Amino acid sequence: MATRRNKPAGGGPRPGGPPKPPPSARTLVPSSGTVTLEEVLVGFQRSLARATRNSLETARADWQVGLGQRSLYVVDSIGVTLQTGVIAAVDAAGQVQSLSLDLGQTPAQGAATLQFSVQSRPIEALSGEQLVLADADPLGHRRPKHALRFTLIGDRHRAGPADAPRAPSWMPLDGRKIAVTLIGGDTGQTETLELVTNPVGQVDLEIDAATNRVTGPRLDRTLQTLDLIERDDDFFVYASWDSELPVEKDGKPRKITSNVVQFWVTRDRPAAPKENR
User: Fold this and answer.
1) Would you call 178 helix, strand, or coil by DSSP?
2) Would the pTM count as exceeding 0.90?
3) Which residues touch 172 (CB under 8 Å, ≥6 apart)?
4) Whose CA, among 88, 112, 169, 207, lies 20 to 30 Å from 57?
């Protein structure tokens, strides 16, 4: 009579074969500990975004939906009520800097009740000549490294003086040089870097405040004027680009400037005393 063998426990070595590889960094693991409030809020936003995207992809894949023969149902908002423990993180001055939620705490242990709603709202499409600067790590998981992303939108098939009038075609511009300016918040020193956009009109930049270095495509060096290690407690970043559309009346090219983003430097030790300027 045949006997049934018990399967080896998950994660352990398999008889006659190599051990099971460890999970990848993208493997999702349910959390039961403490997470920050912003991570919880972003998690709900991502879940709603995935549900909305599922409806969009369904509309693209189902011809009946595309022709209006079937209805498409979309969830555009959710109401959330959480009962969880709240932990405040304070700095040396006793000021609350962040809030964390204890997901393992039960309501019987005196948990707080949080209520909020998550809604999907359309973002205005980029049009016209624009140079957009974004913090690529808005939750600060990689601090003291600051990740930035620049996106350049323009008219790829710009009209020359002899061309007939036509509507512009706005799209990402690749292979364009943009000038990135860094300004130290305390020293007031400025530094300019040159970057080139990739085939999708974007370029990434990383500023490491712990080592005072900046890295990007074909760029890896120490900042020459800013001092993020000792002096500058914060710094500002913006970018500019010379437009390729017809020049202004004075004969000079139009300067397209991005938004300005301020970054705060976190250190394990106090910054050096500031000099009077």
Assistant:
1) strand
2) no
3) 151, 152, 153, 197, 200, 201, 202
4) 169
